[in-house]
């Protein structure tokens, strides 16, 4: 049986020194980092128990052999590979419980000292995206390029990253409950950050709606890691079905979530009108 470690004993990703921000007006980067949920609130930091599985990829070291502990006989794992997060705008009431849960979890994990008494919603990897009259939640849809068309089946953001900082952490590696099980994570030691790069956010914005945001402490990229197969946001959502954790492929097809499509669908339902944007 693998050793069970407390969260605060788990090795944490090393923080990089802050890159000095260039002077000047409000750039698109500044706008991006200042948007999203956009509000800072006071939240009491919670502690989530977890196991360290293998070597955390965020340290920048090469992946090591899996040492995951198999669930005991008859015990189903709560960490599920091959699933996807789906949002239903019709069920969502805009309460932002998911945003708070995500921000609290990752801020407490990555920056326990800086966030001991305050919480900033910029740590969330799920955010409110504002359209005209309609808000929908936005997060990385785990979209992929098409091999037959683009010559690669990578995530677009990973394909453009000059530092290979956007990694897929295989099952048996990562930190249980935070990242792993075949979902993404950003190696913040490798990431050049919003001041020097942000290519991942730009490509995502071009075709989706940025599923990439930036850590307000070290200004490095962050993305939904599906909590390593057990999403905290889904558990925090009080509305049945607004956020769903479902198998990624149904009948052989992958369903991506496009925020603007949901916003327009909701607008039509609420106002009984198709608008020209
Ligand atoms: S961050 Fe954006 S481009 Fe990258 S996989 Fe997620 S949705 Fe796709
Ligand atoms: S901001 Fe970081 S993760 Fe994004 S493309 Fe640049 S180096 Fe890669
Ligand atoms: S699955 Fe986890 S990392 Fe992704 S948005 Fe939900 S709480 Fe945040």
What does this 3D model show about the protein?
The chain is of the alpha+beta class and 277 residues long. It has one domain (28-56, 84-271). Helices cover 21% and strands 17% of the residues. It is built from seven helices and 15 strands. The chain has helices at 28-34, 97-110, 147-150, 156-160, 199-207, 232-236, 259-271; strands spanning 40-41, 52-53, 83-87, 119-120, 127-131, 134-138, 166-169, 174-175, 179-180, 183-186, 212-214, 221-223, 243-247, 249-250, 253-254. The protein has a three-stranded antiparallel sheet, with no helix packed on it. Strands 1-4 form a two-stranded antiparallel ribbon. Strands 3-13 form a two-stranded antiparallel ribbon. The longest helix has 14 residues, at 97-110. The termini are far apart. The relative contact order is 0.21. The structure holds iron/sulfur cluster (SF4) (3 copies). The site of one iron/sulfur cluster (SF4) has 14 residues, from α2 and α6. One iron/sulfur cluster (SF4) is lined by residues 140-143, 155-157, 203-204, 208, 211-212, 223.
């Amino acid at each position: 049986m693998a050793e069970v470690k407390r969260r605060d004993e788990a090795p944490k990703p090393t923080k990089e020194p802050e890159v000095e921000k260039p002077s000047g007006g409000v750039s698109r980067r500044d706008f991006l980092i200042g948007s999203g949920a956009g509000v800072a609130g006071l939240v009491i930091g919670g502690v989530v128990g977890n196991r360290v599985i293998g070597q955390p990829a965020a340290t920048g070291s090469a992946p090591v052999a899996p040492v995951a502990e198999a669930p005991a006989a008859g015990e189903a794992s709560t960490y599920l590979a091959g699933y996807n997060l789906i949002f239903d705008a019709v069920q969502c009431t805009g309460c932002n419980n998911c945003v708070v849960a995500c921000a609290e979890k990752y801020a407490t994990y990555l920056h326990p000292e800086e966030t001991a008494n305050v919480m900033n919603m910029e740590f969330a990897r799920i955010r409110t995206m504002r359209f005209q009259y309609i808000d929908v939640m936005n997060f990385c849809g785990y979209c992929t390029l098409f091999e037959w068309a683009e010559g690669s089946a990578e995530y677009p953001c990973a394909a453009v990253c000059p530092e290979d900082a956007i990694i897929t952490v295989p099952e048996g590696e990562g930190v249980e409950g935070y990242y792993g099980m075949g979902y993404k994570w950003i190696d913040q030691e490798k990431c050049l950050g919003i001041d020097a790069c942000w290519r991942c956010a730009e490509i995502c914005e071009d075709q989706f709606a940025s599923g990439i945001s930036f850590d307000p402490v070290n200004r490095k990229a962050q993305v939904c890691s599906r909590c390593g197969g057990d999403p905290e946001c889904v558990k925090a959502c009080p509305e049945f079905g607004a956020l769903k954790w479902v198998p990624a492929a149904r009948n052989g097809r992958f369903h991506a979530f496009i925020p603007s499509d949901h916003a327009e669908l909701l607008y039509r339902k609420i106002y009984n009108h198709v608008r020209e944007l």
